[in-house]
Every structure is written in structure tokens, then in C-alpha cells.
Design brief:
By secondary structure, the protein is mostly beta strands. It has helices at 3-19, 64-67, 215-221, 284-291, 338-341; strands spanning 46-57, 79-88, 96-109, 112-118, 122-129, 134-145, 148-154, 183-188, 192-193, 201-211, 228-231, 234-244, 250-262, 265-270, 273-279, 308-320, 325-335, 349-357, 366-373, 413-414, 417-418, 442-452, 459-472, 477-494, 504-515, 521-534. It is globular.
Amino acid sequence: MKKSLIIILLAATALTTAAQDSTMVQNELEHKVPNFGVEKIDPSAIHYEVGAVVNAGSGDFAPHYIMANHAGMFTQANSTLAYGNVYRKIDTRRRLSWGAGLALVAGWSSSADYATWVDGLGLQNNNPQHPARAWVQQAYVIGKYRGVYATVGQSFPRNSVIVSNKLSSGDITNSGNARPMPGLRAGLVNFQNIPLTHRWLQIKGEVGYYKAMDKNWINNHDNLYNHFTTTGYWMNYKNLYLRTNPNKRVAFTVGMQAACQFGGTRVMRENGKVTETIKQKADAEAFFKALIPSSGGSAGDNNYYEGNHIGSWDAALDVNIDLHNKVRFYWESPWEDGSGIGKLNGFDGLYGIEYCNSAWGSHIRGIVVEYLDFTNQSGPIHYAPGDHEGTPLTQEATGADDYYNNYAFNGYHHLGMSIGSPMVQGPIYNLDGYTRFADNMVRGFHVGAYGNIDQFGFWQYRVMASHRKSWGTPFVPRIEPVSATSLMAECQWRAPDGTKLQGLSANLRLAMDHGTLTGNNVGAQVSVIYHGNFTFGKK
């Protein structure tokens, strides 16, 4: 990554932040809950939600569309969970505002049997694992002054700037598929007008540091055999976007996301025995190199960059047809290093078309069609003369990416769920106890649609379908490809306002997987949520 480019972009963000007010109608910092709750926005109130979620299935895990993009809450085939949430939103209409949130989950989930190393017997699937019986899903405090915000704690992932959080297969860098990590995050509340551009150009960005909380998960799920585990690492995430005026007939958005895993303790094993323990740097210099990549990593080779870097180039073109109808064409291109940043990874990326209808009574509110391709990965060969000094070879072959995997980290996941695209199956699925991505060389299609069943929007539906095929990884390809077809149909009801049941909502989701990648599985999920608020005498 070009240091000068990052420095210029971060400087532009800082200068714009200091000058802007939060005047956009859209509030992208609104509390984001799994897609089964309904809430009324009242910035003066303290909101609460209580409910129960039950799912049942025929396999080891819940079907893809029950697991995916729900912040890592629903992973097992069978579970009964109680959900409680209390929060206060920030008010973007005020210069100074604050918010906070606390969400707790408790209940029972079924187990899946993972393999582990047993001396004299080899790998044995005798390691049953399930999620914790209770956990904190979010706990955060947020403050805002004018167009600048800062969050401390564990909060739900931000809404994507490019893809639909309701219909997309998932953002390829930060999808909201995994359970969030605690940390510190700061940035612009919404897109802000850049001075001297006469509201023609807007900017948006954020930066944050997070601490992984999956040490026990990795140690409990790893087969303790012939690879490594890295626990206790940090992650830096940042993004920066530019957008033309969205109120014009045509608007364009372009930007970059970048993430970096660094620090932690790496334990090397061979035949079930620990051979080496490496404490990776997490000092002030490492934090800086995660923000602005530079060479001199803690792996003992100064030609390498510090940490595991991954990100994407993002772009979207919006065509506003009329007051209610819009079409978006978008693209996200992954990168692991300079070859991907320079777009030497062929056709790899997420390509999508989204139709939006903002008319509330419409039977079709949105449609998304996407194509995902991760099969090039900058080619199968990587060679740099600096890696083998003294050889007569002078040419470089910059390639051999391994998306979401890294030689010093267990991969770009948290608690086994991919932080990036859920179409790339996370290590939670690896019943052989392998805690890295085993199927990142994938290609697939995804479609989704939602709308109203009745004209008032008290009854809504959502449907999704996808097909994907995997060839393993570039370094460990499969002899024969595996594939999966996933389907989902969902119906949601919410009580009309002004009735005794106001605030109550219920959701039914039916889903299935078929194929050799995920196995054959059918499942159902039912949730009932009640939302209310404390106004403390305010009307």
C-alpha cells in the first residue's frame, strides 16, 4: 500500500471533520440489531428490547442464511436463546450528543464434534463444542460532536457504505458476519460536504483498534496437531470514501477499506507437540505500522510488512430514477498486498446490482443480484529477489495471495465466523479442527429480495438464494471442487402502532443448504421480540 496515499487520505479526513456539521438525514450510527426486531426512533428515549429466538435444524450447524450476517449470534443447528438489549441513540440533529448500549444473550445451543489429536490414536472427533451459555453481545458508549464521533466498547458492526445490509451476501472486508470485538473507534458520523466543492463532493471515514476475544475458542476448536494457533491479537480497521452529491440523478462513490491483524502469541506445533512459541509485537510501533503499513515485521524478516493486511477497493454508481426508485451498480475488489491493490488479481471481486423502492406500501422494496469470484488470487506464484539474496534472478512474480489466511495468524475470522464475506466458509465449519480458512478459492451467485405483503407494511417478506463452488485454497487445492446451494424464506409481522400490542414483532425464517461444501441441512428459526422505551415523562 502506498504510504503517501494513506497519509493524504487521512489528512483530508481530519481537515474535513473539523469543519463539518452532521446535516445528512441518514443516521449510519443507529443501533444495528439482528434482522428480527422492529423499533421506533426517539432520540430522547432509552430503548429496550426483550425476546426469545429458537432455531432447529438437521445438521451440525444452522443453515447458511440463518448463520450469515447476524453478528455471530446463531451458529448451531439447534438453540434456544433469550435476548435483552438496552440502548440510547445519539441524536444527529444536535451538535453534542451521546449514546450507549448493552445487549446480553443467554440460552442453550447444541454441540458439534471437532477432531483433536490423541497420542497413539491420531485425530479423533471426540471434542464436542458449543457457544457459551451466556455472553455479552454488545456493551459500548458513543459520543458525538458536530460531525465527529467516537465509540468505546463492543458495538455492532457499522452499516456498509457499498452493499445492502438487508439483502447482500456480505461486504468482503467488514460484513457484520462475526461477533464484534471490543475496541475504540472514531470517524465521521455520516458523509460530510467537503469545503469549497459547493456540496458536490462528500467524504466519510473511520479508524479503530480492536482486541480479539477468541483465545478460548481457538484453543478449544484447534486439533492441536500440525499447524499453529495465534491468540490475543489486535486488529486495526479503517475506511475512507468519497461520494458525489447523492441528490443528483447520478451519484458515484469510491473508496477503500483496510484491516490488519497484529500482535498476539503464536504457538507452533508438529505431531501434536509444541515446537516454538513466538510473542509478536504489539507495542506503539506495531500499532503505527498497522495503521500505515511498513516493512520490518516481527516475523524475523524485514522484507515483510507488520501484521496480516487485507482490504478492498470499493465503488458504486447510483442512478436515481425518480423520487422512490433507485438502481445501484457496485463493485468490491479484494487485496492482500500490493498485487491486489494494483488489481493484478484478475476478475476477483464482488459485483452487484441493487434495486431500491422507498415507497412504503410496495410489494417489492428491494432486489439484489451479486456475483462473487475469489479464484484468481493474483496467480499461484510469488517470488521476490529479496527473499533469496545472491541468486541471479532479478524479476519479481507478485502473486500467490491466500484471501483471509496468513502465515502468522489463524485467518480473518472471529470465533470461527468470517469477518469478511460469509460466502467464504469460516473455520467454525472445519470439524477436522483446522482453525484457518479451507475454502477461500470460491465462486458464486447470490440473489435477494424483500417487500411488503400488505399495503401497510405490518407483514413483510424476504427471500434469498445462492450457489457457490469452492476449489479449496491456492496452497491446498481440493482434488475435486465442492459446492453448496442455499435457500431462505422469511416472514415478519409487527403489531400496528396505537394498539395494545404495539412494539411486538415476530419472525419466521425457513432455510436449507444442499451440497458437498456445507452438507445437506434444513432448519427453521422463530423469534418474538418486544420493543419499548422509557421517555421519563416526555411526550
